[in-house]
Amino acid sequence: MRKLHLILLIIVFALSTTVFFLNLRLRTENRQLKRQLATGLLDANKRLNAPPDGLELPRMLKGYNLDGQQIQLDLSKSARKLALLLFDPSCKVCEENWTYWKKLDNLRDGSLDLIPVSTVRSVSRDYMARHWATDRWPLIGLDPALQEQLRLHAVPQTIVVLDGKVQQSWFGLLSDSDVDEIAKALE
After folding, report:
1. Architecture of domain 60-185
2. Is the pLDDT of residue 109 over 80?
3. Of 20, 53, 102, 117, which has fewest CB within 10 angstroms of its CB?
4. pLDDT by residue (tens digit) across 34-90?
5. CB atoms within 10 A of CB 107
6. Measured distance between the N- and C-terminal CA atoms of the chain, rounded to whole angstroms
């Protein structure tokens, strides 16, 4: 009888150990699958909500200034290199992104323009004064037809443009490594 109990105990131990290690393996595979899924969803989101790389931007971006007056931003008079900083004042992640956009602004050497572009028309002067140099105002409430044409739906978004063509887009909250990557893309 003791032998039988000992054998059963060994079998239970072996099965428990096997289940434990299988769970560890499944947990690792689950993390990998989640990462792959997140990357795939981000890529799909980018394809649907960002201008495709290589897209030539129109010469004029239409929108409004902070006083509500319609304006046109002539990109042909901008620097050869520019970054569009797409935001919405009600977006919490956009609020955090200003820290990184300011780091990009500190890299400016005269050959780069950074243009904040709001997807909505309701942006206060106080909001912009808190986040951006008061002598350089943004484009507010980008023309909806143009917004649709360029697929500018998701915020925050940082879009690098060289010689009038979209080079690359970054979605969501930037990091210091993203800022370095954007700086390299703007070289």
Report:
1. 3-Layer(aba) Sandwich (3.40)
2. no
3. 20
4. 665 555 545 555 566 778 888 888 888 888 888 888 888 888 777 778 889 999 999
5. 14
6. 79
